[in-house]
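I have been asked to look over a protein record a colleague put together. This is what I was given:
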Amino acid sequence: MVHFKIGLVGTSQLSFPGDKVTAFNRSVDGMKVLAEKWGFDLFVYEKQVITEADALVCRDVLEAEKVDFIMLQCTSFAAGLVVSTLARTKGARLGLWAIPEMRPSGIVSYNSLCGINMYSAIVAHYLKEYNIATKWYFGDVEDARFQRRFQITVRALRAIKKMQHSNVALVGGIAPGFNDLYDDERKLIRLFDGIRINRLHEYGELKDLAHSIPQSEVDAKIAALKAEADAYNEAIDAQINEVDPSKEVRKMSLLEVNARYALAYDKFIEKYGYDAIAVSCWPKFQDDYLFSVCAVVGEINDKGVVCGCEGDLTSTISQLLLSYIAEDITMLMDLSAMDETDDSIMMWHCGPAAKRFCEKKGYSYSLNYSGKDHEGRDLDHAVGTGITRDMVFDDDVYTIARLTGESNKMFLASGVMQDGSKASYNGSRGWLGQLKLNRKDISALDFFNTIMVQGFQHHFPMVKGDYTEEVMEVMAWLELKPVEEVPYENYLQR
């Protein structure tokens, strides 16, 4: 388990008359409450830091404690050498916290706000060559604005740390021809220093594992799958694969294939300890079984392990980041339609979404959208291939966030899912309206134009809820630039 540790430090000058000890202790008590509520570890440096010598001792202690973030409270205005020292604490990012004055007039009690002003300027100018980022906070620990601002930091930095300790795999490579998804994982490794990425797993490893599972386990899984869905098409179970005998694949119902691979992925993930996997969901499954792995992808995500489709490693890692920020399940969608009449876009995929996205409406199992294989050959014995999760997404706010292929920018958007009455395509889907890009309103046309002009990859990781502020903070700490709006024009835009 990855722990995120905050070091709370108070700095002051003796010349200011405010009761600095009481003020700091009150902050300590409040931070302990937040640590329990938000799930971070708190280390309190009990002694007020006044001199450079104090700061040097404090820095050694913070490094020994391996704090991830220093919350430096200017309990009163204090010597500039304090921040010059603490800002260079190894492995720790820096926050500057000012508290309100004791009284509105008379002798200034703390001069705390001026203190963080000076501290931020010292970091920005005197320590410019160190390229140290700081975030400022103002208010008592109980203040709602302070807490919201601080909560965003906790979520963002904790997510970054989890990413640095994550274990991710690509299984089977990228879907054929999906060359826009080819990215250099070295850039991802550099961005999330410490993340492990394994691209060496082949489809055959999962196939062998799937066929090794005892029939009794498979039968139990089939029964569970049937019981779980709100609707089940019995025709699915009746479909038998007409497989080339040379491939030595046993004839199985599609539901049995689904069950075997769901169990196989469970065992695979447990064996290697993966936090996320990008799955090449076609064409190997279709070649062997006339089978779409969509429902299996949805089930993996159900269990809290991030799974992305079509071998899209960067989207899967973006999903993982979103899941850490929101502490929730994510999904990977295509943008498949646009409606200018109500400024909405359809987010759709074959059927890999988790149950989380249809809690109010439920889902059913169905067949895939095509009666042809991946090379266009007709399938004589099947209306489609499958099994997919057919669902309309719940009404809610959704956040979209994906790193670009160069891992130097982030596409960040949000919207509100419509009520589901609007016509849509089979699969996992919903119409997203009230669109925003980088927290600013944008039309559906400008939204799509931005994607097209900048050649943004065709996959969109999504999560329920508005986490755009948290994503923007992650971007700031990691020095990622936003994908900026490109308003639609009739002429060529480059």
